[in-house]
Amino acid sequence: MKIEIVVDPARPAPPASLVSRVAPAASAPAASDARGASCCILQRPEWADVVPLEQYENVTPLAPIFYTDEYRDATNYFRGIVKSGEMSPRVLELTENVIRQNPGHYSAWQYRYKTLMALKSPLDDELQLMDELAIKHLKTYQVWHHRRLLVQQTRNPGPELEFIANSLQVDMKNYHTWSYRQWILAYFNDDALWSHELDFVESMLESDVRNNSAWHHRFFVAFQSGVRNGDEDRDAIVRRELAFVKERIAIAPNNASAWNYLRGVLDHAKIPYSELQAFVLPYSLPQLPLGIPPEVVDLENPLPSKDSQLPCVAAVEFMADIHEAAGGGDLVKATELWKSLANEHDTIRKRYWEYRIAESLKTKSGGDG
Amino acid sequence: MLPASLPPLSKGGHAAHCKRCLSGLPSSQVDIDPAKLALSFYCLGSLDVSGELEKKTKDWEREQWREWIWSQQTRGHHGTGFRASSYMTAKHSTEEHSGHDNPQIIMTYTALLSLSILRDNFSRLDRKGLLEFLRSCQNIDGSFSSEPLGGDSDLRTTFCAFAISTMLDDWSGMDVANALQFIYSCRTYEGGYGQSPFGEALGGTTYCALAALRLATKQLDPLSLQDRQKTVRWLVQNQAYNGGFSGRTNKDADACYCFWCGASLHVLDAGDLVDNAAMSSFIASCQFKYGGIAKIPGEHPDPYHTYLSLAAVALLPPNSSEGASWALCPLDPLLNATYQTSSWARAHIPAPKVDDDALGDAGI
Ligand SMILES: [Zn+2]
C-alpha cells in the first residue's frame, strides 16, 4: 500500500507559486530576497489564467533537489502549460525563463521548439538568442540539439560556420561545438560550405598545434565527408597531407596528435611506414645529427626545430614499428627501441612496451615454426 | 616520481559523500533533474563497489529507494521504460500521458542496474513494454535515440540498448546487425570511437562501443587483429605521466577516464597494460578531504567521478600490498556493476522461463 504525500523537503508550505501569484508580499520572509526580477514574469496578471502544477512525488524521492522559489514557480507554470497544451508567445517567455535557470531542462527545450513551430516564429531571432545561450552553456547538449533543429528548418547553414568559429575561440576543444560543425558540413554538404574548411583547420592549428579536435577535423575534411568533386587525385591529397603534418611535427615534435594523424594518413592510403624512415629517424635520436649544413636541408623531410626535446617518444615508437614490419634481423632493433621506451623514455607505458616485445617474439617464433 | 606507497582510499568518506547526495542536493544542482536516475546509479554504485551499502544504509531506506525508482517506470505511447525523475510529473496527471514525461534509454539502463544493486525481484518490470520501447528507439542507421522517435542518438544511448538487451536476455528489441554497423561507423583513424559518426575519438564512447560489441558478439575479440592493436595503442597512450587517463589525445587527465579507458582495455583483455599503481596514485590525489572524488586534484567531488574512479580501481587494482583500503568488490566491465550485482541482474531481469514439464503436467 502506498501513502500518497507531496514531498517537498525544501519548503513545506504554502506552495510558492500560489503565494507569488496572489500576493507577492505574503510570501515567506526568508524567501523574499530570493525573488529576483526573472520570476516576476509570473506575477503579471496575464498569467492569472494559468493553473500552476506542483511537482508531484508519491514516494520519498532519491536525491531531492532543494529548488529555489523562483525555479519552482517557473516550472509549476510550465507543467501547467504543458497540461493545457498552450502554444503562445508567452510560452516562449516562460520556457526561456526555465531554460535560463536550468539549461539542461529537456522538456522545456522540447516544448519550446514545438511552440516555435506552431507559432511560425521568426527563427533568426531564436538563433540570435541561441548565440548567447550557446556560449553561456557550451557544455549543455540541449543547446546544440535545439540549434540543429532550428537550422534544419531555416536551411541556412552559412552563418553557422562563423558562429562556430567564434564559439571555438571560447573553448577550442569543445566536443559539442566540433560535432556541430561536422554535422553542419556533412548534413548540408554543399561545396560553398566546404570551400574554406582547410584554411579554417589550418588557422585553428596555428593557434594550437596540439589541438586534437582540429587534427581530427582535418582528417574529416581531407579523407571523409570533405572529399569534393575535383579531389579525385587522391595521391596528391595524400602528398599534401603528409607534407602538412611533417611540417607541424618539425615545429613541435612531441605532439601525439600530429603523429596520430601521420599514422592515420599512412594507414588510410595503405602506405608502409618504412617510406617515412628518412623523415622519422632524426626525431628518434637523442640529439640532432651534428654538422648538417643549412644548404642541404631536405624540404621533404624537415628536421626537428632547434631546442626540441629528443628523442621523441612517438618517433622511437614509429621506428620500432618500421623494424618490426621488416622482421628478421630488424626485430632486434625494434626490441632495443621498445626497451628504451620501457626503461627510459616512456616508463608509464612500461607494460605496454614489454608486451610489444613479447608479442613480436611470439610472431617470430610462430613464423620460424 | 610517484610516492612509494599510496595514501589510503577513503572508502567510508566516499560512501558518505554519495549517501549525502542521495538524501538531497542544493538548488545549484538543478540540472541533475533530467538525469537523476543516472546520478542515483553513481551514488548506489559507489556504495556497492566499495562494499559500504549494507553498512551505510538501512533496510527501510533501500526499500524506499526501490519504490521511488519503480515510480519512474512509465508507459509512454511507444512502450515502457524509466524516466529520469518526476520533474515533469504533476499531481493527478499520472493516468494521462503528456508526451513530456517520457521514458529515456540511459535512465532505463541505470534504473535496472540501481534496482539490481538494491536486490529488487523485478516482479514489477514491464518486459514486453520495455522491448517495445527499445524497438521504437532504434533509428534507420542502427543507432538508438534517447527516447522513441527522435531525440539525441549516439554511442552512449546505443550502448544502453545493448546492456538492456543483455539484462533481459532477449535481443528481439533491436536489429543487432544494424546496430553493430552503427558502432563500426563511429570508429576513427586514431583507433578510438567518436560519439557519433565522424566524431573525434573519445574515451567514454570508446568504452560504449567496445562493451556493446562484446555484449552482442560474445567473442573474446570483437575486433580484427589490426584494429585491436590500434585501439589498444590509443587507449594506452591516453595514460598520462601523472598516472591518470585523458579522454582524448593531448587533453589533461581526468579521473572518469581511468574507468572509460581502463575498462576499454579490460574489455579487450589488455587490462594488464595499465600502470595500475600510477593510476591509483592519481585517483588518490583526486580524493576530497571530506569524502568523494573529483575529476582532478583540488576540485570539488561529485558522484559521477567518485563512482567511476572506484570502478576503475575495482577493475585495475593496485598491488595488494597497498592494504585493505584499496580492496574493492570485483567489477563486471561490460555492464559496469559489481559481479554480484550484474549476476543478480542477469538472474532476475529476464522473463521467468516457462517450465515445459510443468505445462505438460497441467495438461496445457
Ligand atoms: Zn570526467
TrEMBL record, chain A:
User: EC number(s) in its UniProt entry?
Assistant: 2.5.1.58, 2.5.1.59
List the Gene Ontology MF annotations in alphabetical order: CAAX-protein geranylgeranyltransferase activity; protein farnesyltransferase activity
By its UniProt entry, which PROSITE patterns does this protein fall under?
Answer: PFTA
InterPro entries membership: Prenyl_trans_a (IPR002088)
Q: Which UniProt keywords apply?
A: Magnesium, Prenyltransferase, Repeat, Transferase
Q: Which GO terms describe its cellular component?
A: CAAX-protein geranylgeranyltransferase complex; protein farnesyltransferase complex
- Which Gene3D superfamilies does this one have? Protein prenylyltransferase (1.25.40.120)
Identify the cofactor(s).
Mg(2+)
Broad EC category: transferase
Q: Which family does it belong to?
A: Belongs to the protein prenyltransferase subunit alpha family.
Protein name as it appears in the record: Protein farnesyltransferase/geranylgeranyltransferase type-1 subunit alpha
Protein species of origin:
Suillus placidus
UniProtKB/TrEMBL annotation, chain B:
Q: Please give the superkingdom of this protein's source.
A: Eukaryota
> What's one GO MF term for it?
metal ion binding
Signal sequence span is none
Could you list this entry's UniProt keywords, alphabetically sorted: Metal-binding, Prenyltransferase, Repeat, Transferase, Zinc
Kindly list the GO CC terms recorded for this protein: CAAX-protein geranylgeranyltransferase complex
**Span of domain Prenyltransferase alpha-alpha toroid:** 10-336
Does the record carry Transferase as a key word? yes
Required co-factor(s) are: Zn(2+)
The answer to whether UniProt assigns keyword Zinc to this entry is yes
Concerning PANTHER family, the annotation shows: GERANYLGERANYL TRANSFERASE TYPE BETA SUBUNIT, GERANYLGERANYL TRANSFERASE TYPE-1 SUBUNIT BETA
Entry's family note: Belongs to the protein prenyltransferase subunit beta family.
Protein name (record): Terpenoid cyclases/protein prenyltransferase alpha-alpha toroid
